[in-house]
Amino acid sequence: MTTLLGTGCETLFLTDEVENSDRSNFDFLWQECDEKYAFFEYKNVNWDSVYDAYSPRVNDGMRQDSLFRVLWDMLNELEDGHVNLIAPFNASRYDIRLLGPENINERVIIENYLSDRPYTTAPITHDALAEGQIGYLRINTFATTVSEGDIQFALARYRDTRGLIIDIRQNGGGSLRNVFTIMNRLARERTKVYDSFIKSGPGREDFEGPQPAYVEQPDEGITYEKPVMVLIDRGTYSAGSFFALIARELPQMTLIGDTTGGGLGIPNGGQLPNGWTYRMSISRTISTDGQNFENGIPPDIRVILDPAAVQQGVDNVIERAIQEIL
Amino acid sequence: MNVRFFVFCLFAVPLGLSAQNDLPRNNHYLELTAIGSASAFRDQGVSPLLYEGFMIIGGGRYLHEKGKWSNSFEAMAGVGFYEVSRLAIYEASSINFAYGGHTRYEFWSSSSLRLRYEGGIRFHGYTNIRSNPNFLNASSGVESLNTLFLSNYLEWQLTRRKKMAKNAGKPVRKRLVSLEVNLPIVNTSWLTDYAYITDFTNGETSSTDKHSLYWGGLRLQTRFTYRHFLKNGNALRFAYWWDYLRTPQGFNQLEMYNHSLEFALVIRLN
Lengths: 326, 270
Fold this sequence. Notes:
The complex is a heterodimer. Chain A is α/β, with parallel strands linked by helices.
């Protein structure tokens, strides 16, 4: 009896495996997006029409590279940097950065603004500007952990300045935990910064929420309450955009530069029958005044990097930030 | 209606009762267990693919046999490694906690056939932390899968009565084989929600957030056991388990099965 029940008997009970054909993989990915993607209405995408447009391009037995290309093209209809398809030989992407100018020239900053010995504390490169009156913190990623000690060290170094410049231009994101580790020490009081909603069913408006998010000063340690200028551009994406969205809610902070790339929908991941993996945005983030900034957070002061100024070794975005503080 | 009467009603009619009785027993055992499993799972919440691999589990069980009653509690922990092969090999791992127990009553026995039958209830559950880096923000998942079973236990004593009688008063190496078939009464599963992600909203979301409790599904469990008693009352136990589990149909349906070989040192405590 045990032999009957135990030797491969689970095959009697296991649900059928999804067919692994080019057609079924296309249908599977389309269906997953159809049921889970969070921004069809916001982005005015008719997903059924997308199916009709791309389905004829799929044939069983086609080259894997060709199938990948079709799926990539289909996903890019969503114009979302948080939507990717990953195969062993390639990874699809939608490059948000190309929607606007790269609003920073790192070399100009290194050669003309930072001393020859700037500090690097975790992902934060920092130094004093304007004869020590301003602290400049360059954070080009949130993918590297920022500890409480890291941010306190940086803030302690500039505690006597008149203001901070936090430069997150071309910051493509990372962990939200790092954003809050920094922002909690810059908040003057407990402040609601946005509401999150997460997909809860296959319907277009099946969302669970709101789940509010707050910044709040820690009970202990170093904080900074003076003015903060946050520099942004189209390459400021995902966690970078969350940083900008929070800055928008804090009265002592000003956004300077170009509109961010957005990416406030958090992606989750999954797998196709052929093993390729994917991710897509499945949540919405709404500002406290009810706005959806998925396509980007506009600056308070719009400043585009001037190529002529760059030739002179001047970053006119930083210059405007200095002007605002002083 | 007390438990004893309830269990009596469940088993008395279909099986009939025998007046056969063994000598009263009152044995306390501690079992130290090591298990190796050929395992597989499919979590439709993130993948339609069946990941196959193995688990290594260790733990302990306390068993009390008193008169016609048998009670046990068990707790185990282990790790699992799985993969599925397509164009590339995709790997997953897990940390597993298993726990359970039973209470059964001897409804029937036969001296001539050297058979005993126990019936009762068994509880068994898994809490798993599964990890698959390929799933990015959904790379870590926690689930708890728990079942209350109707437990059926049939034991056959291999050692002949004649030998037992001949060696009365002396220690005898008793050998027992048993078959346990557990059929589900209630299944519960605590699973990730529709589109679960870690690092949600403020980076503080943990892997245990965004879960829901589901009722139903299917679970079957059988165990074939050989117990070899030593002269000092301790024993060695070898067992083969088969365990199949399926949560209710839905977007996040989870299936898993284990073929397990178990070895235990059975230490008599009294």
